[in-house]
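Morning - zinc ion inputs below, output right after.
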Amino acid sequence: MPRFILMLKVAAMSLVAALAFVASAQAGAPMVKYQAPGYYRMMLGNFEVTALSDGTVPLPVEKLLLNTTPEKVEKALDKRFLGSPLQTSVNGYLINTGSKLVLIDAGAGSLFGPTLGKLIYSLQASGYQPADVDDIYITHMHPDHVGGLVSDGRIVFPNATVHARQADVDYWLSEDNLKAAPDSSKGFFKGAMASVNPYIKAGQFKAFEGDAQLMPGIQAIAAPGHTPGHSLYKIQSDGQTLMLWGDIIHVAAVQFPQPSVAIAFDTDSKEAVIQREQAFAEAARHGELVGGRISRFRALATCAVPIKAIRSCR
Ligand SMILES: [Zn+2]
């Protein structure tokens, strides 16, 4: 083909492509609709800590909170420019100790509706794969903490051993307790069984008791009340401490200033209040970093704490 004709053809093709681009740009791109994968990373001494978002779930908190009134809850939320239903964060935490990759809580998987179950995407976006995880420490066996252990009944973390407190094993994995539970609570037992039993069957589960030192730098602390085996995890490296709070707190705007406010999900709300007050006092005394449902996502903070109630976090 003569060079001149070739140039004309190329020019014509470019024009067509340019017109097509203009047309598609004018048509407008469809909205993506889903949120970006959420993770926040920091060093704690020699450990790498990554907070992983599992998503948020809208909770009608004025109906769920105890030892208060719906009016007081609404007022406290309003003070922080929040309202009910409140978008409540569900998080997991990945700790790379240098020799082990540890996941604290696995998110909700498919157990808590379509807005949760994103932890696995956050984990992958943060640079790791499920097969990289060596150990998983569960704060308690509620569905939004264990559901992500499995997908369609299959183990999601093929090389991990799951660890949880014996008291939660005895309570949530008991067929007798499931039978005795009211219909409204049976789903909690079934969710725990569906999530944890595949690991037990595969020989990838270990229970612990007391304030067990699970590996160098990671200690389980008993904090029963929210569930019988509810555990906090104390992460320590090179003189720095991070306390992972599990479900010590659900609604920061209400419970930081008033830790006596409990939630309907508690197995023993009186005990849960005592544990919350202790956790706040500890955080105040030592000024340590805490992780839990304390901010919209970053999910880690140091808090200014008077004796029992927390006023602010940064
Ligand atoms: Zn819970």
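Note: The pocket of zinc ion is lined by residues 140, 142, 226, 247, 265 (CB under 6 Å).

O.
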